[in-house]
Amino acid sequence: MVLSNIGDSDLIVLYTNGNEQAFETLLMRHKDRIFRYILSKLKDSDLSNDVFQDTFVKVVNTIRLGNYNEEGKFLPWAMRIAHNLVIDHFRRQNKMRTISESSSFDPSYSIFHKIDSGEKNYIEQTTQNELEQQMVQLIDFLPEVQKEIIKLRIFNDMSFKEIAERKEISINTALGRMRYALINMRKMIDKHNLVIDF
Predict the structure, then answer these.
(1) Who contacts 151 (Cβ-Cβ below 8 Å, separation ≥6)?
(2) Which of 13, 29, 80, 84 has its CA 20 to 30 A from that of 90?
């Protein structure tokens, strides 16, 4: 079977049935266009590569969970994911403080500490502070390799490429550890009924 001659929707079916080569064919078919779009918005190749990797982690997770239902319109769907991640990046740039490695060990400092765009009332501020403290505490319950990735990525604002070089692992391994860290944190959030979105 020549996969390059197969349509996107059929490649996705093959992939969901265990054919890893089918997804690689899909990736090779569309990666240049998606990366060029991200780069045109971010103007930074390393950052664009990170967002590109995040895009395909989300694409893979969505397909594996059986939540892909775009009726063969794979490229527009993947482009929307990339676009949303670009928007998320700019929101983080505007709202999040840079957090140094040393401040990450200060229990009063949060990885999700946002610069207020306006005044919050006492209840809102107290609730936000409590959630932030709980998020920092949750990180300590992660396996060591996942905790390490979270700290390097969020506390030190390192790219996945930089993390891979620092830890002498592949970018895919770094991405995988980050993905599992977020999955585990999501499970803990659900278990403890925290109301937070990431």
Answers:
(1) 101, 104, 139
(2) 29
Check if the beta carbon of residue 20 is closer than 8 Å to that of residue 42: no
Listed residues 77, 95, 113: the one ending a domain:
95
- Residue 42's CATH number: 1.10.1740.10
What is the model's pLDDT at position 158? Answer: 84
DSSP one-letter string for 80-128: HHHHHHHHHHHHHHHHBPP--TTGGG-TT--TT-B--SS---HHHHHHH
Q: For position 161, which CATH number holds?
A: 1.10.10.10
- Please check whether residues 125 and 187 belong to one and the same domain: yes
Alpha-carbon distance of 51 to 58, in angstroms, equals 10
Cα 179 to Cα 119, 153, 194: the distances in Å are 34, 12, 19
User: What distance in Å separates the CA atoms of residue 128 and residue 121, rounded to the nearest whole number?
Assistant: 11
pLDDT at residue 193, as a whole number: 57
Handedness of CA 41, 161, 84, 130 (dihedral sign): negative
Under-50 pLDDT residues of the chain = 96-127, 195-198
Q: Please report whether residue 25 resides in a domain.
A: yes
Interval 145-181: pLDDT, tens: 888 888 888 777 788 888 888 888 888 888 888 888 8
